[in-house]
Every structure is written in C-alpha cells, then in structure tokens.
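User: If you would, consider this record:
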Amino acid sequence: MIPLNSPFHPDNERGYQAWRAQKLADYPQQGNDLIVEVKDPAHLTDSEYAALWQRIAKAQMAIYATSMGESEDKEPIRKLAAQFGLTHLDANWLADEDGVTSLTPHDEDGQQRGEFIPYTHRPIRWHTDGYYNPRERRIWAMTLHCVRAADEGGINDLYDHELAYIALRDANPAHIRALMMDDAMTIPARTDENGVARAAEPGPAFAVEDHQLHLRYTARTRSIAWKNDAATQAAVAAIEALLASQPMGCYTLRLEPGLGLICNNTLHTRSGFTDRPEHRRLLYRARYHDHLRNLRT
C-alpha cells in the first residue's frame, strides 16, 4: 500500500508536482556527468563519496572510474558498494560462489549459461534486473563493473526509472494506476527437467518500498505476461514508445576496464558485441536486496 502522502501516490498531485520540480532541477544532461574518479574504491574519500552520492540522489545512479584496469579482484567493488549500504547479495543460481555474477559469453562453448541472454553476445532490451524475483527477494540496487571490454559493441543505455514515472504520469495518470496494480504483470513459471524451477510471479510494475520508487520491467515478450485489459495494455504501449524515443535523461555509454555502474536498479540495455576467445568481455554484476543509502550524513 502506497502512503497517501507519497509523491508517487496517484492521488497526491500537490506532493507529486513538488517532487517533480525538485527531481528535474539541474538533472545531469549526459552520461559523462555521472562519472566520478575514485583512487581506492574500497576506501572512498569524503569528496569522492559526496560526488557519487550527489549523482545517485539525483539520477538514481553513478559511474565510478578506478585505475583497476583489467584486475579480476572483486573485493574492492564489494567494499565500494558496502559504503552505500549494499550488503545483502542476491546469490542467484548462476552467480559465482561469492554471490557475484561473472557476465561473460558462453554461447559458443555449450555451457548451460549460454541459454540465457546475459551470457551471450546478443543484445539485451530494456529491463530492470531481477524482475522475475519474488517480492521477498526484490533487487533494489546493483553494481556492474567492467573487467574486460568487448572488441566492439557492448554499449549500455541507462534510464532513471523515476524519469519514466514522470513521463508516463504527465502523459496520462491512468498509466501509473494500471502499472501499480498487483496483477499488472506476471512472470511465467520456468520449468526444467525436474519440473517447476521457478513459480509464476505476479505483481506490480511500479511499486513503492521504503519510500522509494521501484520498477519491475522487461521489454521481452516471451518471458512476461502483461494484464490483458485496456488500461494496462495502453500503459505498456506508452512505456515502450517512451523508451524507443531516447528521452531526456537516457544515457548511452560503454563501460571500459575499471569503470562501473552503481544504481538503484535503473532501466538499462546492452547492445550486441564481438570479442575473442583469448580476450572475452567480462563484467561483474552484483545484485542487492538493499537500497542505496547515504551512510556519511
């Protein structure tokens, strides 16, 4: 249940307009505006921390730039995330033993991971991470750290889900009401040779948790079933059109070695890419059951 005084409640127009004005004021204009250089990600200085938090507070995301290059050491990145309150990892079944996932192509080596798009060379459409997780395992925040970049491609589009909310609400508040319904979207059950590996997962697209706006979304059509009523279908068409339009605040950039994204599970894509067997693209992805928090107030 969304509190009536929340700016995200469809009936709180006054609160929404005040929040909207503050949100859009001095919003970063390009992807480079999100980048903060950090000397030691495991021990951020106060100025580095403040710069990262300023971007997170405004755009729900920031890009940190380290001198780690192609180092495969995960610990500095986990310690960076912990400084913003990210400690509860989502250890999904394809993650490494430490709960962090090594995203590298397996579509050419016959491994089981190669059946899933993140582990291929193929493009990935707009989505938020873990949209198929049950409510008790929602992904509120994530990091994506580049160890090795592709030879060509592997470019990300990033879009603040709060901007998507604004665009949809301004266009038609009915879109927000439809996407907040508890049965707005259902992730069909996933089966394997042992039966049901993951039960069907219905729920809202937009939700408010801990006073923060969250979005579950994927542009895929094979792994999601939207509620089949006029209001929901109109809302889905509206968000698809919005994301296709490259709206204000949609950033396009490529993570190079030593760079990483830290965010409150914002919308993102990945273009297709090419690499070589001796130099595979490798990114570390960590998903968290925590929201980003400012711990140095």
